[in-house]
Design goal:
Distance between the termini: 22 Å
Order of helices and strands: HHEEEHHHEHEHHEHEHEEEHHHEEHEEEH
Strand content: 15-25%
Largest sheet: 7 strands, mixed
Structural class: alpha/beta
Number of helices: 15
Oligomer: single chain
Strand order of the largest sheet: 4-10-9-8-7-5-6
Radius of gyration: 22 Å
Length: 436
Amino acid sequence: MRRRMLLRRVSAVAQKAHKKKSYEPAPLGPLSAAAKIKEAQYGAENYHPVPVVLASGKGAKVWDVDGREYLDFLSAYSAVNQGHCHPKIVAALKAQAETLTLSSRAFHNDRLGEWCEYATRVFGFERLLPMNTGVEASETSVKLARRWSYAVKKVPEGTARVVVANNNFWGRSIGAISASTDPTSYGGFGPLAPGFDWVPFGDAQALEDLLERQAERTACVMLEPIQGEAGVIVPPEGYLAKCRDLCDRYNVLLTFDEVQTGLGRTGRLLACHHDDVKPDILVLGKALSGGLLPVSAVLADSHVMLTIRPGEHGSTYGGNPVACRVAKAAIQTLVEEDMISNARDRGAELEAGLRDLVQRRDVALDTRGRGLLRALVIDPDRVDAWDVCLALRDNGLITKPTHNNVIRLAPPLVISSDEIKQALAAFDTALAYFDD
């Protein structure tokens, strides 16, 4: 596959046979156009959405405000794993919203302990710290690892280091962008927070070399099992296990950010389960609520979690009764309806279809991923991935590029085999336009 990609590029450069082709999308319907104008007039401009204005969703499908139907192949960046508006999760939301919505952590509520007990049993940890968004949970995990390093490992106060991988992504907070290697994330927002070190993703030897030099000051190694925002980058086989061994050897915590890869997305409950590796700290979010509201969590065993004491960390909404009840229903639904197996099986069908497209369509260079987290790599010399996504929209499928020439594919885990075929047909038609 790599040789084929190189041959295509050499041919294109040497012969200058192909001119980059753009795409003019169909105009929006009148209601969509009006909604888009209003958002542009009154909203901030920190996003560049695909031009579609969604109004409703069910399962793997969504409809725009003008009634046009689409297959959702982004799932709100993997937040809608259980499908749009799953009735069991919606019922849990409604029931709790009519009883008690918020108590704050100034008082106990009758849902938090039940949720913590359920989640710790499902994921195999002793303790859960509830938060709201994925980036909040990731920030919390960094605080927790640092606190552990000072309280248990006896790292000198103020010197703890956190190791992350190049091209990581865990949000847009000051902490997250300080850990980023992407100038579009951190540029123009300094001064940035200190205390991070970087290693190439997938390179266990580089991690070992770094820990050999500074393990005594390192609190944790924080990784995504698969890098989603970077373009669905799957590490080499055995990489996560090697990282686990290195962290054990050097007395460093291992944190897995499974906000995007967790909860069945890759065909296992957690992506790290493919490698039979358990982290010391687990970060979850997105699909933890089935896409109904922000819910996130940090899980760890007591010897790590209890280093943070009362008054040292918190959240007004974290652990609220609605979030707890919805999150429990979301995980129960995921497990009881066997969505994880469906992700594995439909993911295999999607992979086979994408590989066929890569063989037949010149603008498609490669595909990669696991389960229902996939990427299609587009030849940037021939077309922008953005234009391919516009063509896909006009063929009844919506998704979005990441890192310029990569199209991320992450449909809800409830997607059917027929809907996979429908999606592949949409890709074939869209790619054929750019092959002409």
